[in-house]
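[job 0417] fold request received: Nucleoside-diphosphate kinase
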Amino acid sequence: WESTIQRLLGDTKHFCPVALKNNNVLWPSTDKISAKYRERTYYFSTLEARESFLQNPAQFVAQREPLQPPALRIFLLGTRGSGKSTHGEWLAQKLGLFHIQFREQLQMQVIAKTSKLVPRADEIVLLESDSEHLATLIKEEMVGDDKEMENTSGNMSNIEEEVMTNEELAIKAYLSHGEALSPHILDMIVPPYFKEEPYM
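[job 0417] inference complete; emitting C-alpha cells
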C-alpha cells in the first residue's frame, strides 16, 4: 500500500524559479532537487540553482502579483528557401513578436567591420564572374600600371583579414561556407535576445 501525498507546489510548478528569474526562461526542473519555502515545494534544475534560491527565496517567488511567464519565442529551422523568413514574418505579425533573422544579424556585425555583405559560397562564383567583367572595364578606362592596381586590391583584402577578430572571421566563414559557430560565439550573439530589452 502506497500513500500519495499531495504536495503544494511553488509558483513555478515543475519549472526552476531561479532560471525564470535569472534567465527569463521556463527551464524544466527535476524532482530530485527541491526545497520547501512557506509550506510550498519548489523544484530546481541544478544544485547551484537550489543554493541560490535558499540564500534569498523571496526574490524568486511571487510577492503581490503572480509570476509572469517569459515572452514567447519561436525558433524556425530549415534549409535555405524553405520559408523560414516568410513564415517567421507572418507569425511575428500575427502574434505581436519581434522577427529576428539570425543570418541578417550576423551580416550586420560583419558589415560594421568590412562595409560589405558576405556572399554565400555558391553566390561567389557568380560575383567573381561579374567582378572580372567589371575589372576589365575599369582597367580599360584607367591609365596606370595594372600590377599596381592588383597589388593594391590584394593588400586591401589582407588588411581586412587582419582587422577582423577571430570571432568575426568565424562568423564570416559561417556566412560564406556554412561552417558551424562555436558555443563561445553563440553565447556572445544569442543572449541579448533573451536578456535585453526590447526583446526580453
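[job 0417] notes: Confidence is low (pLDDT under 50) at residues 155-161. The first helix runs from residue 17 to 23.
[job 0417] exit 0
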